[in-house]
Write a structure and sequence with these properties.
4-stranded antiparallel β-sheet; alpha+beta; Butyryl-CoA Dehydrogenase, subunit A, domain 3; binds 3-thiaglutaryl-CoA; 3-stranded mixed β-sheet; about 50% helix
């Protein structure tokens, strides 16, 4: 095996023919349709909404969904698709994550038959876009403290509150909104155009620029009881969705890291300083070896987690470990790659600074490094260290 391939431990052999086919199909699409415009989307701060129908045709929406036009893929194939999309850009993968894990999944698992019929086929075809409103200005890592309320009034619920940092917010035809009710935190489907409901852009981002990030305002939004996701039974229901999204992020981060490593290796073997390629120096080799080692560990973690998931043996702390490790290692790899590229590493002429800036968000959203550390710490000790009170 050539040391130039980003598959040092022959992980390829751990994949089925179908899983490889999904990966290769998505890789070809990303390379031909997204990469040529990735830098422009990032620079201009634009999500390429015109590509949504192509993503749907490629089967990127509803990848794991059985029925309703979904792909019914296993977890490893789903993960590989996330990896390839994030090799393109974390913003593009965020769109895929939100659609699959945070909108289609909760409607499939917690929705009524009517809600599933109404939304799932349209979401899978890309005719409808969704978002997931959990985070608030005063409730980020601690969503249990959310202040958005849904109060019963006759046959309706009335929602009041603010949601912050919501991916796809202004694009969405339907928002999965989490709110405090008299029966704990529950999920609601709030449609675009509902009186009192609006989405506003969050501007001046230096990360995830090719993704729409919004604030949601809910001022006395009256929705019928049929908008409640009837299967939701507290914060746990929302955390189950996060579990799915975090799993995809663990794979996606590997894709971004692979892209950065490839760019760094290419530069190290072609850039001549002091009469030799910089890759001939021990310092640069040490950095490349560390990068490849961490990518290899992350790849193995993902494949094992995917198999555990499909066997019904993966627990939330397993997902936390993969999300935590892979996003933080990808960020370190991107920073190292940026360094190896020297001055050229600061421009969008290479993918590296784009990935590096994006990975700052990937490391923060869906549970920060600290939060996943505490979740795993609680799992192994049985002691919660979330609050110092
Ligand atoms: P805690 O007592 O731990 O849990 C309440 C109930 O939920 C269960 N549970 C989980 N279930 C499934 N998956 C998980 N990951 C779970 N974690 C906990 C738990 O067993 C319990 O069940 P039960 O039956 O006893 O009721 O709740 P806590 O309030 O102590 O909070 C735990 C904590 C801190 C880990 C959680 O709040 C957390 O994960 N915080 C981080 C917040 C976060 O990740 N937000 C993400 C917002 S969405 C987003 O960022 C989208 S980015 C999209 C993109 O663009 O890709
Ligand atoms: P805080 O919770 O305020 O944390 C600040 C710092 O304190 C962090 O370093 C954290 O690790 C640390 N900290 C917090 N608690 C503890 C503790 N107990 N012990 C030690 N350290 C602690 N949310 C959604 O609901 N839907 C979305 O679609 C969505 N998309 C996003 C897109 C982008 C681009 C971004 C940046 C965020 C998005 N988020 C979304 C929000 C994201 O999930 C939150 O930003 C994240 O959960 C962290 O919350 P916070 O930003 O409020 O930080």
């Amino acid at each position: 095996m050539s040391s130039r391939e980003v598959d040092y431990f022959q992980c390829e052999e751990l994949l089925s023919v179908e899983e490889r086919a999904v990966r290769d199909r998505v890789r070809r699409w990303v390379e031909s349709r997204y990469l040529p415009r990735a830098a422009d989307c990032f620079e201009q701060g634009v999500f390429p909404v015109d590509l949504v129908p192509e993503m749907a045709d490629l089967g990127l929406l509803g990848m794991k969904l059985h029925g309703y036009g979904g792909g019914g893929l296993n977890s490893v194939a789903y993960g590989l698709a996330n990896q390839e999309v994030e090799r393109g850009d974390s913003g593009l993968r965020s769109f895929i994550s939100v659609m699959n894990a945070l909108v289609i999944y909760p409607i499939e698992v917690f929705g009524s038959a009517e809600q599933r019929e109404r939304w799932l086929p349209a979401l899978v075809k890309g005719e409808a876009i969704g978002c997931f409103g959990m985070t608030e200005p005063l409730a980020g890592s601690d969503p249990q403290s959310m202040r958005t309320t849904a109060v019963r009034d006759g046959g309706d619920y009335v929602l009041n509150g603010r949601k912050m940092w919501i991916t796809n917010g202004e694009l969405a035809h339907v928002a999965v909104v989490w709110a405090q009710t008299g029966e704990g935190i529950r999920g609601f489907l709030v449609e675009k155009g509902a009186p009192g409901f609006s989405a506003h852009p969050i501007r001046r981002k230096f990360s995830l620029r090719a993704s729409v990030t919004s604030a949601l305002v809910l001022d006395g939004v009256r929705v019928p009881e049929a908008s409640l996701l009837p299967g939701t039974t507290g914060l746990k229901s929302a955390l189950m969705c996060l579990n799915e999204a975090r799993y995809g992020i663990a794979w996606g981060a590997v894709g971004a890291a692979m892209a950065c490593y490839e760019a760094a290796l290419d530069h190290a073997t072609t850039r001549i300083q002091f009469g030799a390629p910089i890759g001939a120096t021990q310092l640069i080799q040490s950095k490349l070896v560390k990068m490849l080692t961490e990518i290899t560990k992350a790849q193995l973690l993902c494949i094992r987690l995917g198999r555990l998931k499909d066997e019904g043996k993966a627990r939330p702390p397993h997902v936390s470990m993969a999300k935590m490790n892979n996003s933080s290692e990808a960020l370190k790899i991107a920073r190292t790659a940026r360094d190896i590229l020297g001055a050229s590493g600061i421009t969008l002429g290479h993918c590296v600074i784009r990935h590096m800036l994006n990975l700052e968000t990937v490391n923060t959203y869906e549970g920060t490094q600290d939060i996943h550390t505490l979740a795993i710490g609680r799992d192994i000790t049985g002691l919660s260290a979330f609050s110092c009170q």
